[in-house]
Amino acid sequence: MVPFLHVQALGRLCRPEILLSPGRGAALHTTATLEKNRAGRYRVTRNHSRPLTYEMANPPHQIAHRKAWNSWNTTHFASTKTKKCPTNAAMKVAMNKKKTVTDLMQLRQ
């Protein structure tokens, strides 16, 4: 026996003999509601007068990954290529001589 489906909103389409008949398997289509409300999410104002901060714009589990990638991907900027920044070869020499990076920085000045 088919259980009775009690839905009055759709009227006669929701009768069990129409819904569960073998020839009409796709008679009733349902979709998710199209709501844009998302709880707990920061949003930019409509006229973009108050932009989001970095922490507000990124989910917590992605901040570490993106900050790491952004710090690794800044080697081509001119401001990171200063004379005070030790090179890889100088770092290897310092590690071989058991010197710290601060000692190396003092030697370069």
TrEMBL record:
Keyword Cytoplasm: no
Residues in the signal sequence: none
Keyword annotations from UniProtKB, A to Z: Mitochondrion, Ribonucleoprotein, Ribosomal protein, Transit peptide
Protein name: Uncharacterized protein
A GO CC term assigned to this protein in UniProt: ribosome
Record flagged with keyword Zinc-finger: no
Lineage: Eukaryota, Metazoa, Ecdysozoa, Arthropoda, Chelicerata
UniProt GO BP: translation
Family: Belongs to the universal ribosomal protein uS3 family.
Locations listed in the record: Mitochondrion
Top-level taxon of origin: Eukaryota
